[in-house]
Structure formats: C-alpha cells, structure tokens
Amino acid sequence: MNGLDLTVLVAYFLGVTVVSHWARPRRAHRDAYFLADRSLPWPLVAASIVATSISGVTFIGLPALVFAESGDLRYLQFALAALVAKGVLGVALLPRYYATGVGSPYEYITLKLGPRYGRAATGLFMIGAVLGQGVRVFAVALVLELLTGWSLGACIALIVGASALHTGHGGLRAVVWTDALQGLLFAGGGAFALALAVAGGAGSFDALFTAAGDAGKLRTLDFSTHPAASFTLWTGLIAMPFQNLAAYGGDQVNTQRMLALPSLSAARKALYTSLLGEGVTALFLLVGLALWAYYGTHALPPALASAVAENGDRIFPAFILDAIPSGVRGLLIAGVFAAAMSSLDSVLSALAQVSTAGDGDRSTRAVGLWALALGAFAWALGHGGGQLVPLAYQMTALSYPPLLGLLLLAAFAPRTWLRRPALGALGAIGLVATLLPLTTGLAPSLAFPWLFPLGTVTFLALTVLPKRANQGAS
Which of 5, 107, 203, 330 is 20 to 30 A distant from 185 in Cα terms? Predict the structure, then answer.
C-alpha cells in the first residue's frame, strides 16, 4: 500500500470510531448497553443483520469459490435455507421471545427448561462463537497479510483490537450503526471491483455470461443426491435450514438485534427484510465469475500468482493489488476490514452480554477477554488449512446441533420430555466429531451441510429416550 491507500484506511478507522462514540449509550444499564433500550429502527437492524451475516468469508471466500476450476453459482441454493429458517423464526420463535420479554435465547431456555439448560446453551454459544468467528478473523487476516505485507499475527491483532475498542465503548447501538455503514462499504467495494473486472476482462456482462455459460460456470441448480455434494437443492432446502435456524434463532449474535426492537412486528420486518442480503451473496459470486474471465486474458504478476497457487482464497485480494488504482485500493482494503469487523463487533457484543449476565459495568473487560480468545484461535488456524467457506460452517457444526435441539425443546415440548439431555448432547457432539473428518479434504465423502440435521436429530432422539423406572435423571 502507498501513502494514499494508508490515508484512506486511517480515515475509515477514524470514521468508525466517531460513529461508535456518537452512538454510545447515555445510561449504563443492561437494556441501554446490550439491547439499545429496545428502540432501534427496524431498517437499521435489517441492514445490521445483513452486514453481520456476510462477513469476511463472503468478501473473500465466495469469489474464490466461483473462480476455482470447477466453480460455479450453486452456492446460491443456500438462499433457500435462509428463506425457510427465517420464516420459521418469524412465525414460531420470535413471538415466544417477545411474549416472555427475554434478552437472549438462553434466557428463554432457562425460563422454560431451567437454569442448568440455560447455562449449557450459553456455553454452546460461546464455543461456537469463538470457533466460527475465529475463521472469519483468520480469513481477513490472511488477506491483509497479502495486501499490507504485515505479519499474520499483526493483522489479527489490528482486527480484533480495533473491534474491541469501539464495541466495548459503544454497546449494541454503536455496533448496529457501524455494522450498517460497514455493510455499505464492503458491498460498494464489491460492486466497484465487479465493474472493473468485467470492463477489463469480458468487456460486458453479456460477454461474461456467454463465456461463463459455455464453460459451465453459470450452473445454479444441482439435483444430485450424492451425500458428498455440498451445494445442491437438497442441502439448501433440507440440511442448511437447520444451520440457519440455529444461527438466527439460537445464536445471540443475530438474535440480539431482533430483541433490540420495540415490538414483535418491527422484529419481523427486520428479519424478513434481511433476506435482501442474499443479493450481496450473489454480488460476490459474480465477482468471482468476473475474476475468472479477467484472468483468462491477463496474467497475475509472479509473486501474486505464487500466493494464489498456495491458497486459492487469495484471488480477490490479489486482484485488488494487481488491478485496483491507488486510493480506491485503500477503500477496498477498508472494505476488507469492514467485512471482518461487521461480524466481529456483533460477536463481541453478544459474548459480553451472555458472559456477564447483562451486567453493563463488566462489559468492557469481557469484550477485551473475548477479543483475545478470538485472536488466539484465528492465529492457531494459520497453522492449519482448508477452504474458507466450508471451514466457516464446519467450525459451528459441533455446537449448533445441541444448541438448536435445546431451543426446539424449550419452545415446542413439555419439560418432562427432557429425559436424557446429557446423553443427547454427548451423542450429537460425538457424531459430528466422528463425521467431521469425512467432510474435509479434496475428496470428501460427506457434505458438510448434513452435519447440522444429523447432529440435531441425534440430540433430540437421545434426549427424549424414555428411561427405565429404576434409572435416575440424566
């Protein structure tokens, strides 16, 4: 990066800091800090949900997914999962949350099933948040390492440090406002990169789609029933709704926003409007398609070509360095930061809420400690591997199934059905841990989306198993 790029990047950080300071709560109590006094406007919350769900994995991983030799647009089938899961959440779960006045799904589970189940759900959320968000921090740090020349550790420290500073200072209101602004930034950056890659590569969208169609890269629907096929109509319609329902209904990162609205009606509006975020997913898939055409006629500089050959997820960052003009390049790099921080801010805010039981006085310290944990896990991932998009999902497959199972039992089953919850949790986690290696590698034998329904069904089946009369409680 040159001086102009650094100036743009510094201006971005200053802008985020100013917004965080402006939006900070004026009163230091639970609802003000963690739920913004339940007074946020629903369009702002909808934008924040979109920004949080997109993350750095979308910004970086989706273009690489399409750019790859066998890449195409089949990932779009996962939009079906969002449609199904958000429909169930809006109709069946949000009304229960608002009727009881809870501030998190774990408070709801505590209310319906008892304190130990609420603590178990909180623990599952914490584990899943660190694992899932650690991948997102690592994804962006991997890119910034290439873009800036800084070490991986320094990039991770900058991401988590900057996010912790304004999250700890401003609470949920600051997080939602900065999320919305950062979402606009990285979506705008993606649109600019798409236009530039199309103009310099295929020349027009018509030419791009013609060439991509001839190469088979416009394939969107896949009716395959092979268990190792990850992006199919069936994984989108059957398997991934389990993941999405856990993510939006049981993960405080997203649920916190919907519970910060003044009414159930407003929460539903925000939730359903956030489905427009699937358009951002499509945007970054198109970026990957445009990069495929661009580098069909252009050659990457040797150093960048070597970096991309080592890790295909670097193709979009390599394009930013190779083809984006100075100044605008700084804006795109700021977009990379925005993609990371929009989801990281949300995770830190949610982790602080559940780990301090809503005590705003201890929130700043909690934010800092969770930032250290996330940074440490992201750094550890630097010694591993795996394609970013599957890895981001795989990391939550251990915690989401039992968490979703507890939520479903709390919402729809009498408490007496919880006969063997410990067995259910151990069985679900054990099954997923056993199957997880089958979903990795160059030739997986099981698609990662199936981990979520298999784990959830296992938890529910083992939990409600009847006990013999002479057996004690689990």
Answer: 203
